[in-house]
Structure formats: structure tokens, C-alpha cells
Amino acid sequence: MVETLSVRALNRATLARQLLLAREPIPVPEAVGRLCGMQAQEPKPPFLGLWTRLDGFQASDLHAALRDRSLVRATMMRATLHLMTGSDYAAFRTTMQPMLDGALRVLGDRAKGMDLEKVVPAARALLDEAPRTFNEVRALLQERFPDVNDRALGYAVRLCVPLVMVPTEDRWGFPRAARFTLAGGWLQREPSAETAVDELMLRYLAAYGPASAADAQTWSGLPSTGDALERLRPSLRVFADDKGRELFDLPDAPRPGEGAPAPARFLPEFDSLVLAHADRRRIIADDHRPSLTTKNLRVRAVFLWDGFACGTWDTEYKRRVATLRMRPFEPLPQAAVDELAAEGEALLRFLEPEAKETAVTVES
């Protein structure tokens, strides 16, 4: 008989893999590898995401990993920027290409006249000469392909050429207009020519399981996740959720049970945890899910109480006063406010070490 896992049991299992039941004293590259990447649409969120997961994390730890190239920021899952280990990027970049090819469809008529067999080699040659910003890449490609929309040219290069962003000494690792370079040259090895969907699914389950085929597809953007999980079925454990949906998991992965304590935690904007499942009830209730994303598709920062997203948060720094504002979805018990306030104060000290004062507020 298939074991049924409650929403709360799924919550605890996922938090255990996401380093959110207890901060762990592990190196930054190891943590990013265990998470199978971190969403990095903007450069700042991974710093916050690692602070909330790792014992003793310092911003310099992530800077060092970017400089020594053990970590890269590049386009990966769902055609979005992610922080990945260099080895994972090399192993899985080719696996992502069918999804990235499909993402080109959003260009519609803007892709009129574009010949990828000419554009891709031209772009590679430009980026082989020197790292460039995408404003520079678009302008140079427009000179060669004047009849093609410049934004379409840039988007096609992002998706069809394996690129990584060049880190700088900026506070969060990258400037607003970062330079890109060819991944093969940066990592001193080309991405694997082989696809590795099965291995990617095993890594996904290790970081986000137990999960369904639909969950895996939502996280990766790949349409082939169901076939891969079927191939892997003999080596996996199979569960059901409270709605009878089939969930796959690694046999020895942590499933601590719904009674495991879960401390207060603050997740940054775009955190992969809130984007990694089709059914996100293990992290955020369906009634609150519309509050997660803004009209312009920004994914809001959320705070966790008893393991679940209970509201959004942001910070402000003025006149050397750092303030963290919590906006709960529903009124919080005093115990939650107290624990979140203590965690929030620590986060503010990380974010704004020069602040003379810090304050955590709860807004209705």
C-alpha cells in the first residue's frame, strides 16, 4: 500500500533538504550544489538565501566562490538566471537546451528574419573576443543583422549560447549591467554534450522532494520529466499526497515527519523554494499564493513561521536606521512575532552592518 504524506509532512521533508530546519556549517559551493541551484534573477537574493541557510555565512564567502569560479550565475531552469556550481552548470546546460529553444517562441514576430545558424556563431565570436554587456552585444549584432530586432537578437543569444556572468567587486557580486562571457572559456571546459535528464531529476528530488512529475516540470521547465521519473521508478520510493497524486523520492532522503520543529526564517525575493512545485501548498497556502507575485512578475520575499509562508517582508535603510517590515497574510501569534523579530534583527545586522539602529515592525 502506498504511504500518504500530509502537506505538513511534505513541508518538513522539503525544509530539511533546503537547509531550513537548521543552519548548516558547510561551504557555500556545497550548499548551492545541494540546493541544485538558487534562483538569481537579481544578484542580491542568493546572499540572503545563503545567510538564512548556513551557519556563519559571510558575504565574502559567496564573493570568493564566484571569483574562483566554483559558482556561476547563468541562464538555466525555466530560462531564468540561477546561481549554480560550475560542475552542475557544465553537466546540465545542454539538458536545458530544448526548454530554452522553446522559450524563443515568446519572440513571435520580433524574430522575423533571424537566422540562428548565423546569429549564434557571430555572437560566440564577439564574446570570445572579450566579455561584453548585452547592450554591447545587441549593438554589435545589429550592425551585422540590421533587419532583425535588436531585442530579439539579444534574447536569442541568452538562450542559445552557453554564457556566464562575470562577477565584480560590487557589493552583491554583479553590477546592474553585468558583462557576459562564454561558459566554456570561463570554466575551462565546455558544457557536456550529453543530456542528463535522469540525473537532473535525482538532484531535483534530493533538493525538493518528495515531488510529482508536474512539480519537476514546473521547477525545470522541461517537458520530459515524467518520462525520466518513469525510467527511475524502480530505484525510487513512491508516495501519495493528500489528493492521491503520485510523488517520487529518493529512498534515503530525509523525511523527518510533521512533528519536526521548524524555526522562523526569512526567504529573499525569487527564492527557488517558493517556485519549485506545481502544488505549492507545502510552503504556501493556495489562498495566499496570489500575494506571492507582483503584477510585473516579481516574486516577493516571504517569511516562514512553523515552516510555512505566513507573509511578505521588505527592508528600508534611511539615516543609518535599518527597518524590516513584515506584512502577515493573517494575524500572527505573539510567539511568532517574537521569534521572527529576533531573526529579523539578525538579518538586518547582516544586510546593514553600518546601521546605528535596527527595527522590525509588523504591518497589517
UniProtKB/TrEMBL annotation:
Domain of life: Bacteria
Record has DNA-binding as a keyword: yes
Molecular function as annotated in GO: DNA binding
Lineage of origin: Bacteria, Bacillati, Actinomycetota, Actinomycetes, Streptosporangiales
Protein name according to UniProt: Winged helix DNA-binding domain-containing protein
Swiss-Prot/TrEMBL keywords: DNA-binding
The keyword DNA-binding is annotated on this UniProt entry: yes
Native species: Actinomadura monticuli
